[in-house]
Specification:
- The protein has 66 residues and is of the alpha+beta class.
- It has one domain: Orthogonal Bundle (Arc Repressor Mutant, subunit A), CATH 1.10.10.
- The protein is built from three helices and three strands.
- The chain has a three-stranded antiparallel β-sheet.
- β2 and β3 form a beta hairpin.
Length: 66
Amino acid sequence: MAKSQDTVLTIDELADYLKLSKSTLYHFARNGNVPGVKVGRHWRFHKAAIDEWMRKGGRFTISNKE
């Protein structure tokens, strides 16, 4: 079983988790405002990275990107 920090969320799961619309998350992801990666046509988000992003107030700056 995967550890919780290894959990990968889909856009639908992340929308439910953050109580945001999918369209808002797509906009954030395309603009690099939320930590995620596009795999083919689909976005994926590490829950641990999302939790850290939220702890920082939802800010994701250039220095956070790799």
